[in-house]
Amino acid sequence: GFAKVDHHRKKRQGFPEVIYGEGKTAEQILLIINSIRSNHNDVLVTRITKEKAEYILQEYPEFFYHELAQILFWKEDPKADSFKGYIAIVCAGTSDLKVAEEAAVTAEALGCNVRRIYDVGVAGIHRLFDNIEEIQNATVSVVVAGMEGALPSVVGGLVSHPIMAVPTSIGYGANFNGLSALLTMLNSCASGISVVNIDNGFGAAYNAALIYRI
Amino acid sequence: GFAKVDHHRKKRQGFPEVIYGEGKTAEQILLIINSIRSNHNDVLVTRITKEKAEYILQEYPEFFYHELAQILFWKEDPKADSFKGYIAIVCAGTSDLKVAEEAAVTAEALGCNVRRIYDVGVAGIHRLFDNIEEIQNATVSVVVAGMEGALPSVVGGLVSHPIMAVPTSIGYGANFNGLSALLTMLNSCASGISVVNIDNGFGAAYNAALIYRI
Amino acid sequence: GFAKVDHHRKKRQGFPEVIYGEGKTAEQILLIINSIRSNHNDVLVTRITKEKAEYILQEYPEFFYHELAQILFWKEDPKADSFKGYIAIVCAGTSDLKVAEEAAVTAEALGCNVRRIYDVGVAGIHRLFDNIEEIQNATVSVVVAGMEGALPSVVGGLVSHPIMAVPTSIGYGANFNGLSALLTMLNSCASGISVVNIDNGFGAAYNAALIYRI
Amino acid sequence: GFAKVDHHRKKRQGFPEVIYGEGKTAEQILLIINSIRSNHNDVLVTRITKEKAEYILQEYPEFFYHELAQILFWKEDPKADSFKGYIAIVCAGTSDLKVAEEAAVTAEALGCNVRRIYDVGVAGIHRLFDNIEEIQNATVSVVVAGMEGALPSVVGGLVSHPIMAVPTSIGYGANFNGLSALLTMLNSCASGISVVNIDNGFGAAYNAALIYRI
Amino acid sequence: GFAKVDHHRKKRQGFPEVIYGEGKTAEQILLIINSIRSNHNDVLVTRITKEKAEYILQEYPEFFYHELAQILFWKEDPKADSFKGYIAIVCAGTSDLKVAEEAAVTAEALGCNVRRIYDVGVAGIHRLFDNIEEIQNATVSVVVAGMEGALPSVVGGLVSHPIMAVPTSIGYGANFNGLSALLTMLNSCASGISVVNIDNGFGAAYNAALIYRI
Amino acid sequence: GFAKVDHHRKKRQGFPEVIYGEGKTAEQILLIINSIRSNHNDVLVTRITKEKAEYILQEYPEFFYHELAQILFWKEDPKADSFKGYIAIVCAGTSDLKVAEEAAVTAEALGCNVRRIYDVGVAGIHRLFDNIEEIQNATVSVVVAGMEGALPSVVGGLVSHPIMAVPTSIGYGANFNGLSALLTMLNSCASGISVVNIDNGFGAAYNAALIYRI
Amino acid sequence: GFAKVDHHRKKRQGFPEVIYGEGKTAEQILLIINSIRSNHNDVLVTRITKEKAEYILQEYPEFFYHELAQILFWKEDPKADSFKGYIAIVCAGTSDLKVAEEAAVTAEALGCNVRRIYDVGVAGIHRLFDNIEEIQNATVSVVVAGMEGALPSVVGGLVSHPIMAVPTSIGYGANFNGLSALLTMLNSCASGISVVNIDNGFGAAYNAALIYRI
Amino acid sequence: GFAKVDHHRKKRQGFPEVIYGEGKTAEQILLIINSIRSNHNDVLVTRITKEKAEYILQEYPEFFYHELAQILFWKEDPKADSFKGYIAIVCAGTSDLKVAEEAAVTAEALGCNVRRIYDVGVAGIHRLFDNIEEIQNATVSVVVAGMEGALPSVVGGLVSHPIMAVPTSIGYGANFNGLSALLTMLNSCASGISVVNIDNGFGAAYNAALIYRI
Ligand SMILES: Nc1ncnc2c1ncn2[C@@H]1O[C@H](COP(=O)(O)O)[C@@H](O)[C@H]1O
Ligand SMILES: Nc1ncnc2c1ncn2[C@@H]1O[C@H](COP(=O)(O)O)[C@@H](O)[C@H]1O
Ligand SMILES: Nc1ncnc2c1ncn2[C@@H]1O[C@H](COP(=O)(O)O)[C@@H](O)[C@H]1O
Ligand SMILES: Nc1ncnc2c1ncn2[C@@H]1O[C@H](COP(=O)(O)O)[C@@H](O)[C@H]1O
Ligand SMILES: [Mg+2]
Ligand SMILES: [Mg+2]
Ligand SMILES: [Mg+2]
Ligand SMILES: [Mg+2]
Ligand SMILES: [Mg+2]
Ligand SMILES: [Mg+2]
Ligand SMILES: [Mg+2]
Ligand SMILES: [Mg+2]
User: Fold this and answer.
1) What pTM value is reported for the model?
2) Contacts made by residues A23-32, CB under 8 angstroms, sequence distance 24+
3) Is the dihedral of CA G196, G200, G201, G203 positive or negative?
4) pLDDT in tens, A45-56
5) Per-residue pLDDT for D207 more than 80?
6) Is F139 helix (H, G, I), strand (E, B) or coil?
7) In sequence order, which ranges of chain A are alpha helices (DSSP H)?
8) Going by CA atoms, what residue is nearest to atom 14 of ligand 2?
């Protein structure tokens, strides 16, 4: 076929190959899912539109689709994982919801407990302080922010666990599609912050899940 | 001569022409000062090294040189201005001192009262909160920050006066000589922030002085 | 809910939280407005299309929508403010009207007197000189320009009050969506100029209003 | 003084404030160390040249200086931590040694066990496979690479723990001082990778230590 | 006419002028084809959509259109070339198929034998090793990769023939439309790699064909 | 009105204000034309689509619209100018036709004789040499090229008159919307070349007309 | 030898090959001069330091060296040209003198009359108006400006002859070594402006001389 | 030791590991050479200064150092290779000599016949035509050019063998350290051109040698 699915990944990395839905047709995604399912692996598709998801759901009605997060997934045994602790998914503004949900649903699909602390950006920093304990008690945080992307720096100075910072492409003008937030996070003077690609909620949650499972 | 000094500026703008010292020889600076002095104007030279300043001070021993700020100035009547209120000069880290002092000394040379609140960056945000009232009570603030440049956003959310944000070139790697902090400040989701060029402490203070004098 | 409205902002900053309409659905905007109104705060929504505005106006027919400026607002007491002086909103070309109007309507919504001086760009500089006195007599100016963005530098050399410079994304080729005008304004050799994000008429007007109210 | 040391950080974050030596004079560093020591905290200085370190060592001869890593540190109780497991510090070429050592020595200063796997870049990938088990058995890896920065992607596909990727500024031409490696790492199609600033060996090790201590 | 077809190119370069279809109307393409055919030359059109191709096929039903590759071509004597050896077309992910097929079909149109080794990216490097001998036995390879573009570096370290590396614009965020993969390939620490423009499958195959025919 | 037409420009610069059509509605363009016509000036509108032009032509059926060039103009006395010599409009590929025609029609509208030498790019340089005398005999040349933009350098080495180089946004990948050709032309090692904005056929022709009229 | 001097250029282009001194040793420059002189051609060397020039002057004491302009030249018949009219060399600030002089001396070496109008930047625009007639009466102008580079736009709106705009690398921060001024000039909304490379006083003067001689 | 020399590379790739001298001390280079020599492999060091080379030559006086190319090498059997044909090393200007020689000496060290055709840039294109046959008869060409980097496009249109294009960092202003030439070459409309990193004469020659040996 056109694709060489990495069936071995679950053994090598603890999670099966994740399907990146953007740029693939619904038919291509279905073929890859079939191949993954034939190996008795769980399925996780990111960046998949409602239309493509509905095509897959006809074949696999038991799958779960989350529209805001653009994620489709299926877990053989949804109760398999019972870790203590949780991942805090924090975001700066309501405009960052989509990316934050990509992170939150990915983490849930990977078997993690998740707490959402949204719209606590630095322009009204008291909102962050009202919720800081819930963040501090997490095992690891994913912090999502667009525009100037300052939130991870502030959170980074207040918690003692690792932070996965996600710049979003939200903004305009000299935001340059997320470059501004990306540079902010890479240059953070707070310690304990590492960065993933712009809008990559999936990647941040995946990393957080690896840490959560240690 | 090689230069056309703008003697008319004091009348037009309230301050005489300021001399930008970088790239000019000590001799050139002296000639311009002579021309300004012959018009009975005050003198302000920025970005002037100790060596060049000493050359000028031989001729004009009454001038005042501030080495960290790299500023040389002279005011006919230092007590002339008696405004109430003050400009808060805030900076994020000890590495930003040079630019913060360029701002502070410029503001003083322009006849403003100044309060310095230094090393209160977001990595240890309690230091900002310990000093927030002094900042809130200012007429206008100059906020200086390098690396990710998040400080103006946080201050911007806590005060109700205008903020002049100054990105500094302090940092390394993906800081790209201040580009990171510059973009952060331009994209701030807090309102009330406007931005000057990288390391332009002078420009921020000049703007702040215009506002202070209203 | 999905949003934590910053009800405290009016007390902290003098103006309530402004709603950034881009990327939000009409329903989301309505929910945030309801929350703000329940706190007896004034409402200001920027970057809101006619379609979304009409959805809101069904619920709140007393609100005012300005299409060119893409602004929707409502003031409890429109006559509340009676400041003397005015803000000059200056723009270079007819192509910059949209951004200039975002600034002008924002300033009016924030209770300021406004004078519009439009289409006075440097390619025909006599048009600027014909109107320079009206600009010089303002308390503060917002100067909007696209393409090469030279207008704030020229105005900056002719007035003695602070200028908020707004680069617009108008232009083509090496304009790079406003980058050209942004860099021009940041590097201005005239003093008294500070800069906001590309196309950010709102931000410039907000800053100008803070200065105007001093 | 000129600095507001963040004495509270140890309590808040588990580690005391780390001193960034670049751009500070030896005297400034000494003053900050005195302040930290007066609070009975451990000391860690990064980016400190031999000359500056020797100045400090006259006062504190018990401190330890690592020249290649440009790190000076002192731990009250070097045996305090006894964690199981180790952090793998992996680097691509001999040119990346400096950054790799900044990471390795930082991790040791923070009480972690460290294993160094150096010069295993993708141009001769068998060198990586000869050492892959030692990497796979680590709790967390720091992977350092310059030029095209491909190593973290390859390692990321072979291990099941989190990877801190560090781009270095090693290279020439279209490397653009590390931008090439930075973008490579941010865009990695392998999962489990997050990125820190160019040449930021310290940051990667700090993050790795946070994960290691979970 | 509007175009000066380079009829002489076949003699000068071994292949006739190739028509770049993007930005040309179907009518313009037809006129150029007529001109080329009147000189008894073979025809190769790249970047041609199905709609435009169908317009040409009405006139020249004997032409061959490959939709995924967006290529239309016709060879007077398809069996003319009988070289030994083959060109390996290697790609990293299923998202890179389009560019890989542009390369593969171009090479075939230019009379080369081609072997396709697809979806063998570094995130699951065993897939590359399963196919490495087929790559090593090629005369020359075209290696196509998006996102971080690391595949050519790894292949470059394992083969002893020249590699044409093709960065693709596949990815998001800090991928910057292929810039990330382009820089990776230009900075490769493996030898034997040269690079063509982003998404330029045609150019890579053309170069490979020149080498193949030596 | 919303616009301050620069009626004085004809006297100051020899040509009346040119209307930049992009971003203006047909109604706005009509209002500006009315204002210009009321001053008995000639009319030139660039970047105007067929739809907008047809709206104007209803009112002014005597105007001339050139669709490929996207130009609408009217000259009181089309025979007014009778200069000797001509402007050579040279372009590299058929993809550059649109910009070349913007230049050619602008020059004609400004009363210049024009000769078109199209599709003579460096990939088949004999086409240039076949036409070099016609170029050499021009008073001034406009040379238009996309992709790598090498044509002005080659022409610049072969003629003794000034060249206006126009980079076009034609190309893909690392062309970055004309940046590649722009940089090529700015860095030309041939003398006698100056550059206008990407795709700015109008600007190049305007400059050429100024030279032509000397 | 290592160089193929283009002896034919004088016939082809009106001026002999100009020697670009940067990156060449004094010995290499001497060898090229010898070769040019053996063909009875005039000599022009740009970007040549005092040290290198003195080495050449030992051999050719009749040559003329201009230190500020970094130009060395010799003309067989200095009175050969007697054109009417002059080139105006205009610059914005005293920091642009070096580039302006490179232009002025080049133009003189090419046999043109030159008038210098220096330090008339837009921050004090009355200085420009005091000198505008001298500029308006020129055949062609070279306008040099650093920082935001707004001067050519203003001059462009006031004269009816062609302008060669030269961005300089003077400035700091977001000036990015002249990029700011370069973009400003490329995007000028004034007509009649074309642009040469950053700091390329020579190129502007060469182009101006071509126009001057028409 | 600090390095893992890739002794296996000769078998895998036909050439032993090449030592990149930049950023390594003379001692480090010597240790790596000892390790390579102990395996009876040939030695090639690039980017090695005279000082470092002299240190190595004390130990290995039989090695050959080429200063302009900054290359040190030793071949067990210099006569081992006797291929027919040659590699043409073409460069645009005398400023590109260093990079051209890095390519030429590398190719010779790898056992290839080399012909140098230097200083034939497009500003005086007749110099290229005077030498075109020697280039056309080569098996493969390396074409080196700085500034606008147009030479490979012109050569590419005139030969029927593959071209390795090398952008150099020679130039100033908007050259941006070779970016201009790099983009030119990547966007070439001539076919048969592939590109290596800026100033990477070694890489181009290595690739050319692989092709030459086919
Ligand atoms: N035009 C605008 N540009 C930038 N920020 C804005 C604008 N309008 C409103 N804002 C602020 O941006 C923030 C948006 O947060 P959110 O809507 O939760 O994503 C709020 O703090 C707003 O007050
Ligand atoms: N193609 C073009 N490119 C650049 N400027 C132009 C063009 N066509 C007209 N202009 C000028 O651009 C300015 C546009 O100003 P406005 O139309 O008021 O935004 C006017 O001075 C026009 O003369
Ligand atoms: N949101 C995402 N971002 C980046 N990579 C992803 C994402 N989702 C999946 N991937 C990985 O990207 C690779 C895509 O390869 P392919 O689908 O063959 O082009 C696979 O290894 C996926 O596991
Ligand atoms: N995919 C491609 N990429 C780059 N150049 C191409 C491609 N396909 C064709 N060309 C060449 O690009 C040039 C286009 O010139 P024109 O079509 O006249 O604008 C011709 O020399 C073509 O042979
Ligand atoms: Mg919000
Ligand atoms: Mg500090
Ligand atoms: Mg106008
Ligand atoms: Mg090595
Ligand atoms: Mg795949
Ligand atoms: Mg063509
Ligand atoms: Mg001056
Ligand atoms: Mg030469």
Assistant:
1) 0.95
2) A23/E95, A23/E170, A24/E94, A24/E95, A25/A52, A26/A51, A26/A52, A26/A55, A26/A56, A27/A55, A28/A2, A28/A3, A28/E94, A29/A56, A30/A55, A30/A56, A30/A59, A31/A1, A31/A2, A31/A3, A32/A3, A32/A5, A32/E94
3) negative
4) 999 999 999 999
5) yes
6) coil
7) 9-13, 26-37, 50-59, 97-109, 126-129, 132-136, 151-156, 179-186, 201-212
8) F20
A137/chain E closest Cα distance in angstroms? 31
A114 CA: distance to closest CA in chain B (Å): 25
3-state secondary structure of C82: coil
Q: Is the dihedral of CA A79, A82, A83, A85 positive or negative?
A: positive
Instruction: Tell me the C-alpha to C-alpha distance, in Å, between residue D55 and each of C181, D24, F189, H204.
Output: 48, 13, 52, 48
Here the contacts of A49-55 (C-beta below 8 Å, separation 24 or greater) are A49/A21, A51/A26, A52/A21, A52/A25, A52/A26, A55/A26, A55/A27, A55/A30
Cα(E179)–Cα(H182) distance, rounded to whole angstroms? 13
**What is the interface pTM, i.e. ipTM, of the complex?**
0.95
Instruction: Report the C-alpha gap between F27 and F16 in whole angstroms.
Output: 20
pLDDT digits (tens, 9 = 90+) for E83-107: 689 999 999 999 999 999 999 999 9
Residue E192 structure tokens: 């034997």
Overall size of chain F counted in residues: 214
Amino acid symbol at E75: K
What is the bridge-based pairing of β-strands E64-66 and E71-74? antiparallel
| Chain E interface residues (partner D, CB cutoff 8 A) | 92-93, 121-125, 147-150, 153-154, 156-158, 171, 173-176, 179-181, 183-191
Ranges of H-type helices in chain F: 9-13, 26-37, 50-59, 97-109, 126-129, 132-136, 151-156, 179-186, 201-212
Calculate the alpha carbon distances from B165 to B123, C180, E49 in Å. 18, 20, 50
Q: Mean of the pLDDT values across residues A146-150?
A: 95
B2-11, D43-52, G114-123, H43-52: segment of lowest average pLDDT: B2-11
> What is residue E113's predicted lDDT score, i.e. its pLDDT?
96
Residue among F70, F95, F68 at smallest CA distance from E28: F95
Distance CA A148, CA D32 (A): 30
Q: Which two tokens stand for residue A20?
A: 């990146």
Which tokens is C100 given?
A: 């200039």
The protein residue with its alpha carbon nearest to ligand 1, atom 18, reads A93
**Contact B63/B54 with Cβ under 8 angstroms?**
no
For residue A182, pLDDT over 90 is answered with: yes
Q: Given this model, what pLDDT does residue H79 score?
A: 67
Provide the β-strand partners of residue H166.
Answer: H144
Predicted pLDDT at B76: 83
Tens digit of each residue's pLDDT, chain B (214 residues) = 678 888 877 777 777 889 999 989 999 999 999 999 998 889 999 999 999 999 999 999 999 999 999 999 998 877 656 668 999 999 999 999 999 999 999 999 999 999 999 999 998 899 999 999 999 999 999 999 999 999 999 999 999 999 999 999 999 999 999 999 999 999 999 999 999 999 999 999 999 999 998 8
Mutate to test the interface with C, among B4, B191, B195 (most CBs of C within 10 A): B191
Instruction: Report CA Rg, chain H.
Output: 17
Cβ-proximal residues to F34 (8 Å cutoff; 6+ apart), any chain: none
Phi first, then psi: give them for residue F54, nearest 5 degrees. -65, -35
Ligand 9 centroid–CA D88 distance in Å is 28
Q: Does the Cβ of C52 fall within 6 Å of ligand 1?
A: no
